[in-house]
Amino acid sequence: MTAPSRIRIGSAPDSWGVWFPDDPRQVPWERFLDEVARAGYEWIELGPYGYLPTDPVRLTEETARRGLKVSAGTVFTGLHQGPGVWEKTWAHVADNAALAQAMGADHLVVIPSFWRDDKTGAVLEDSVLTPAQWRDLTTQTERLGREVRERYGLRIVVHPHADTHIDSEKNVTRFLDATDPDLVQLCLDTGHYAYCGGDSVKLIETYGERIGYLHLKQVDPEILADVVARGTPFGPAVAQGVMCEPPGGVPALEPVLAAARALDVDLFAIVEQDMYPCPPDKPYPIAERTRRFLRSCGA
Fold first, then answer.
1. Which of 194, 128, 126, 122 lies closest to 161 in space, CA to CA?
2. Domain ranges, residue 204
3. Is residue 21 part of a domain?
4. Contact in structure between 186 and 213 (CB atoms under 8 Å)
5. pLDDT of 177-194, one tens digit each?
6. Model pTM?
């Protein structure tokens, strides 16, 4: 008889309104670490590179004395642009991967580049990839998975994200079908997938062997309907409150967690409630209530 899978709950700087390495509207990193630990979380992600200390000795001291451990780093990539962007991409990836490795993490979350600016909403490129761009995206992502594993011992988990080319069920499944499961797994963000019309439980049940990591997030269906109707870019949609506190939105997280447990593998499930920008006193009470809610779901 196999042992039940273990879902390890964590949170991230994103849940404290942190999107950038340095921004006057964000809480200082010391406050984030203090509050995420006080809210009852044991695991964190690194967030944008440079927000937390990048010296692994110092970061280890700061996290250890708060009882925190690091589950993953995060990188943004534009791999659909082909081999020509590899060196620039790798320079960014290597810094993040080295710090994640030094902190004992096993994963690197890979987010595709936005086709429109997340602050201004300016359209940067076509929202639909050509067949050649799809080939570059899949082959370069496999290369990234191989290089990150060989050099840093980390698994990449690709994060479908609103306003990127890996977003809807159609594009997510196309991406999965075209990539090597041994090199490329998925970070399923329940909020982003719902934002783009996807069903997280269905994806877990259909592509369970590809799910390597979870981000737990919900969207407000009424605000989402307005965002979709108006074509609002992701950044302004977040400022409008499209990502909301569980259990007040969709998808319901109990069935998601149940489907994840049924995979019979160990998974990180990191809470992320996009709130940039937000008042400094807003995140902590939400984080504490969310942790309580997830415990009521058995997580």
1. 194
2. 7-296
3. yes
4. yes
5. 999 999 999 999 999 999
6. 0.96
